[in-house]
Amino acid sequence: LVLILLSTLSMCLLVSSYDLISMYLAIEMQSLCFYVLAASQRQSEFSTEAGLKYFLLGAFSSGVFLLGCSFLYGITGLTNFESLAIFFAQDTQVNQTSDWFFIQIAILLIAVGFFFKLSAAPFHFWAPDVYEGAPTSVTAFFSIVPKTSILGIFIKLFFVSFFELSSLWQPLLILTGCLSLVVGAFAAFAQRKVKRLLVYSSIGHLGYMFLGLSCLSVEGLQSVLVYLILYILMTTQIFACVLSLKDAKTGQRIRYLEDFKYLSSAHPLLALAFVLNFFSMAGIPPLVGFCAKFYVFFAALGSSLYFFVAVAIFCSIVSCFYYLRFIKFMYFDKGSQIVEYSVMDGQKAWIISVTSALLIYLFFFPTCIFLWAEKTSLLFFS
Predict the structure, then answer these.
(1) Tens of pLDDT along 10-31?
(2) pLDDT band at 209, cuts 50/70/90?
(3) How far apart are CA 281 and CA 290, in angstroms?
(4) How far is C-alpha 208 from the geometric centre of its chain's CA atoms?
(5) Residues 6 or more apart in contact with residue 131 via CB below 8 angstroms
(6) How far apart are CA 213 and CA 25, in angstroms?
């Protein structure tokens, strides 16, 4: 509990930081908590392995990120976000100076550090093993908190300080977004474990967010914020559903897709929550996930990102198949041995009920999050 509170505090410090030094310290504080959380199940060698992998690769990404910040400070002598924005906005001949090459290297290293932290392809290779080895509750925490905080500070840094250098980092964002969509859609087909499949699903969702960020417009940023809110709700619900499933005989949590057989008979309401959530993640109309993807596509088309949108639509269609595998196992496959599930506790039942109600409500009345996203987006372009 203390580690979760500390990581939450570091998330708040991170999204409120306005300086490269405070940003780096907040990222490291958050990462240290995550390393220990990943290895918190000490009797499990998989959890220890996950914590060690997370520590080694996290330290490497932090080093890359810090090197980029050092280059940037060495060139400009500045660490404040607003001061950097003024420097790049006023220095119109910066691309003709001898420092232009090192500025490119600095932006590249900082972006790569962020992509590692976000587990965006092709820097995602650590995420499936770490998320699989960590306890399921910790995996749920990892799927929401790091993406929210890191993506928030990424937007603040790149849309405030580096917006004048968008010609440098926009192609990186487009390339990484396309790779995340492809990896998230196709790598999930080979997965038989629930957590690994959900990890690749989160990588795919990150690609849609990068699609909105690549627009460099108010509409694109607004679509990303809307998508992020809905992603948090959908991920919270799906992990609450997974955590509520335990084998009554062994006491073990559900790990494989085959374990979902007979769920529609044993827990029909829980199976229905799974169906609604997976359909929403796949972007099936008229669910709220379709609205989020449609708004991202609409913003991207307005910015002439036609190839990126084509890749995103294709990967969205492909991802429908592995979401449908869950439904196939729950409703149509019958195993040789019936799995008896433990009784769901009241806390998880409340979380599933509240998130389901919010997802249904936001489909019919999405005005509240759209207005909030629009006001927040305008702050970056005022």
Answers:
(1) 888 888 888 999 999 999 888 8
(2) very high
(3) 8
(4) 10
(5) 50, 139, 142, 143, 195, 196, 198, 199
(6) 25
